[in-house]
């Protein structure tokens, strides 16, 4: 079974897929070693690690380098967050996806919004057309890749977000998407409304207002992402440690509750 086939299978079973979001080879290794069955890159975490704001500010070549290092260190399927595609047109976006396929990437996450001066939702029909062109190209080339279509209706708090999400879900499903990612969706009614409106496996982002994995499974959710939260919290801890060192005039804070033999 190929990594793509394994990744696809993980979206179509009773229990949701717990996707570990990573930003470098070491974070990917740790998540694999702790029993996760698949990985996804976090665009925000990778951007911040490289000194950029999120929103396609790093180059695709920089992203590709990080993905190469991750692929070299893990054996489980990897999906790559390509934001809006890192291309000025469909041809460039498809070229980028081809490069990821050559590395052995099992899937991509591509979103229906763009960050210009601020994040803006794209017309649903235009984004559906992009998905269709991507899938048609991959099918012609006999190159399998899981296309997770992210809709930013809840992130951008559009009016009647659940209804607009349902409309977009149907368009993206018809265009050939393999999954639907709805970050920031949280309420039971909204989640169930979206899940019941599409045959696509629905992916949610782990938010404070969401219930346990078991309840999300009962609601019909098929994939749960950790997003940028772990990386963000690690940076908070790092900041606290640095502040403690400066405040105390000592490195002792580094060794509190730690094994001193570790290097």
Would you write up a description of this structure?
- There is one protein chain.
- By secondary structure, the chain is of the alpha/beta class.
- Helix content is 46%, strand content 15%.
- The protein has 10 helices and 10 strands.
- It has helices at 3-10, 25-33, 43-49, 60-73, 90-103, 124-140, 161-175, 188-197, 213-219, 229-248, and strands at 17-22, 38-41, 78-81, 107-111, 113-115, 119-121, 146-150, 179-181, 202-205, 223-225.
- The chain has an 8-stranded parallel barrel with strand order 1-2-3-4-7-8-9-10, surrounded by 6 helices. Strands 5-6 form a two-stranded antiparallel ribbon.
- Strand 5 (113-115) and strand 6 form a beta hairpin.
- It is globular, with a radius of gyration of 19 Å.
- The chain starts with a helix and ends in a 15-residue tail after the last helix.
Q: What brief labels describe this structure?
A:
alpha/beta, 8-stranded parallel barrel, two-stranded antiparallel ribbon, 263 residues
């Amino acid at each position: 079974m190929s990594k793509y086939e394994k990744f696809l299978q993980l979206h179509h079973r009773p229990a949701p897929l717990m996707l570990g979001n990573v930003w470098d080879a070491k974070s990917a290794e740790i998540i694999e070693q702790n029993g996760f069955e698949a990985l996804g890159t976090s665009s925000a975490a990778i951007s911040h690690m490289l000194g950029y704001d999120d929103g396609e500010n790093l180059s695709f070549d920089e992203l590709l380098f990080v993905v190469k290092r991750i692929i070299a260190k893990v054996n489980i399927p990897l999906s790559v967050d390509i934001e809006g595609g890192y291309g000025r047109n469909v041809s460039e976006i498809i070229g980028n996806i081809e490069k990821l396929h050559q590395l052995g990437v099992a899937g991509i996450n591509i979103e229906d919004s763009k960050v210009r001066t601020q994040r803006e939702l794209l017309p649903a029909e235009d984004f559906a057309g992009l998905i269709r062109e991507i899938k048609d190209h991959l099918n012609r080339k006999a190159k399998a890749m899981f296309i997770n279509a992210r809709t930013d209706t809840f992130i951008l708090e559009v009016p009647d977000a659940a209804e607009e999400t349902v409309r977009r879900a149907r368009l993206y499903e018809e265009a050939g998407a393999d999954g639907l990612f709805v970050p920031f969706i949280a309420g039971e009614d909204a989640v169930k409304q979206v899940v019941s409106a599409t045959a696509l496996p629905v992916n949610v982002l782990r938010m404070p207002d969401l219930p346990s994995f078991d309840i999300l499974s009962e609601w019909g959710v098929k994939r749960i992402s950790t997003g940028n939260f772990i990386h963000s919290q690690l940076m908070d801890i790092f900041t606290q440690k640095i502040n403690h060192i400066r405040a105390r005039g000592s490195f002792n804070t580094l060794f509190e509750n730690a094994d001193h033999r570790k290097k």
